[in-house]
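forwarding from the other thread:

> can someone predict this with zinc ion?

sure thing
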Amino acid sequence: MTPALEDLFAVLRFPSISTDSNHASDVRACAQWYVDKFKSMGLSVELCETAKHPIVLAKNEPVSGRKTVLIYGHYDVQPVDPIELWDSAPFEPVIKDGKIWARGATDNKGQHMAHLLGVEETIKEKGELPVNLIFLLEGEEEIGSPNLPGFLEERKEELACDVIAVSDTGMVAKGIPTLGYGLRGITCCEVKVNGPDKDLHSGLYGGAVANPATAAAQLIASLHDSEGKVAVEGFYDEVEPLADWEREMWSQVPGVSESDLLEVTGSPAVFGEAGFSSAERLWARPTCEVNGMWGGYQGEGSKTVLPSYACFKLSCRLVPDQEPEVIIARVQKHLEAHLPTGVTMEFTPGHSGKAYVADPHSEAGKAAQEALEEVFGRPPVLIREGGSIPIIQSMKEILGTDTLMLGLALPDCQIHSPNENFTVENFEAGIRLSKVLLEKLGA
Ligand SMILES: [Zn+2]
């Protein structure tokens, strides 16, 4: 086994499950491994305490006039349940069929270890790095990074940088280098529609008082028109139209065609806002989705009841320039305006986060594109992600710096699921990528 794989295996053996307090000492032991590793590479390193799991911060000696690059990763992992579905023990990494199988192999130990080892190789070969480096590894990403924003705020000056590199996203397909430059935001709410003060007999009272479940269904149905467009007034007011180059680029990106989506989702058909491709709907258009709905009798057989209330949960995915607070207020206003007679409504806003977008054609973006092309042998596809990565938005808000999302995960890597895996090929490509990227960013 190569020394690079040995290092990766060493960290994969720590069950650094951040959500489980029984594993707090494993999380800490894993952090300590990185402290020792960074020290052995000649970097200055600090184990930074937080209210929960520590952050590892490593740096080289800064030289004025050089670019400062922050590489972010997280060394905590998801729980392993259901354990019986794993083909090998989650914390005893093995290589089979060209893949490393272990919890954390892709998310995120394998991906950030590639950067760490790229840094180590560069130092060994050249004696120093072409940039001022800040390597930040947190142990709380899988529980929502509760202490990272405070840490960034506290160390704002010390962490000032020209660009951030993160490998915690995916490649659209095997062998297709992928540069991510945008993420959707989110805003959520829960709605309770109230009717009678108790469940009623549907024979004795049905037809004479409003049914909250029917009213909730009417409200939900009012959120979209028949063509999939969100019908909330003002919902699209701030949405920037897609650039021509984006539509052109995305029309050629593999993995997001109609047939790909049908296969991945198992849905009988694709559906979404008229006038947009699936990639555009996923990456650059806002949505309003029902996440759950309940009320009334849910048990076996029938029960002739008129429920006293019905509830539903909504989440809106947002795109740049949509403010979460503004959008959720418009949704509330829409629901109040469409509330059927005979019921009342309780509206509770949930968590939210802004969308993120950077210019993939900036100086750093171009350096990343060149590095990806050099390592993978073809120009990268430039995509946005449909999901949200709050830390990237936090780093933008607090440090004012854009992030290059250099995804190395493959679609079948099974992160968060049993049999998580990372190809040896991508691990090794990631090491080369980190070396070339630092060289290009430093040039
Ligand atoms: Zn994860």
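The longest helix spans residues 424-442. thats all i got for now
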